Amino acid sequence: MKPLLALPVLCVALGAAPPAIAQQMDDLPPGMQRAEVLGGWQTPSGSRMVALRIALDAGWKTYWRAPGDAGIPPQFNFARSENLADVTFFWPTPEVFDQNGMRSVGYDDELILPIEIRPADPDKPISLSADLDFGICQEICVPVSVALSADLDGPGAPDEAIRTALLDRPEPRPDHARCMIEPISDGVRVTAMMDLPPTGQEEVALFELASTPVWVSDSVAHRDGNTLTAMAEFVPENAQPFALDRQDLLITVLSGDTAVEIRGCAE
Q1: Looking only at Cα atoms, what is the longest distance across the chain?
Q2: Which residue, among 140, 87, 95, has the nearest Cα to 116 in the 3D structure?
Q3: Residue 210 φ/ψ, nearest 5 degrees
C-alpha cells in the first residue's frame, strides 16, 4: 500500500496560553535559527492577520502543506488557544526540490506563513498558542516540534514581511480544470486539462484534495499548445476506489516565477 500523505491538521479549542512568543534558541535543532509568531494587525472585519515564521540556516528547507513523497507534512494544533474561533492559512508559493530522485515541495531558508485568526469574542484579546510539528531538511530530514504563543490585543501594526508573503501566493484562476476521473485498484486516477499559456519553463502540477487527507502521487504532465494536461493518482488510507469530490480538488501549477491555483474540476 502506498503511504498516506497527511494534510495539515488543525485543531481549535479553548484553553490556556503560555506566555512565550518565540521558541527558545537552545530548544531548536541544528539547522533551525528561530521559530516565532509575528503579531500582525487587526483587519477591518475584526479578525487579525498574523504569521508563523520559521527561520533556517542556509541550505536548509522546510515543507509546503502538501510536501511530496520525500517531505514531512506540517501539522498545526491551536487547541490551547483562548478566544480563538477560526484560522485561515495563506500559503506562499513553494518551490519544487529533487531529493534523491524524489520530488519534495517547500521553502528554502525561511517560511513566513500568514494566518488570519478570528476571535470568538471580538471585544476580548486572543491568546494564541500553536503546537507545530513539521520537518526541516538539508542532506537528511529532521522532524521538529515547537510550541509558540502570543497575546494579541489592540490594532497591531502593518508588517512588511507578512504583506510580502501574502502577495507571494499562487494566482487563483476562476476557471475550472476539465477532468477525467477513473477508478484504479487502490484509489482513483485524475487527468486534468487546463487552459494555461506556456511560459517556456518547466511546469509542475501539484494535486491535492482541499479537505480530505489522501496520498497523492507525483503528477505527470504534457502540453499541447495552450492546454496543459496533468495526471495524478489519489489513494485513501483504505486503498480502495472512492467518490472524489470534484469541487474539493485543488491544482497548483508552478512554472519558473509563475504560479497559478485552480480549484474545482468540471467534467
Answers
A1: 56
A2: 87
A3: -60, -35
pLDDT digits (tens, 9 = 90+) for 9-68: 333 332 333 333 454 455 788 899 999 999 999 999 999 999 999 999 999 999 999 998
Count the helix, strand and coil residues of the chain and give each as a percent rounded to the nearest 5: 5, 50, 40
Residue keyed to cell 518565540: 22
Amino acid at 46: G
Which pLDDT tens digit goes with each residue over 98-155? 877 788 999 999 999 999 999 999 999 999 999 999 999 998 888 999 999 999 999 9
Question: Nearest-CA neighbor of 146 among 264, 236, 252, 27?
Answer: 27
Contact 61, 106 (CB under 8 A): yes
Report which DSSP code applies to 25.
G
pTM of the model: 0.87
> If you ran DSSP here, which 8-state letter would residue 59 be given?
T
| Nearest-angstrom CA–CA distance, 126 and 8 | 22
Which alpha helices (DSSP H) does the chain contain, by range? 160-167
Is residue 7 pLDDT above 50, yes or no?
no
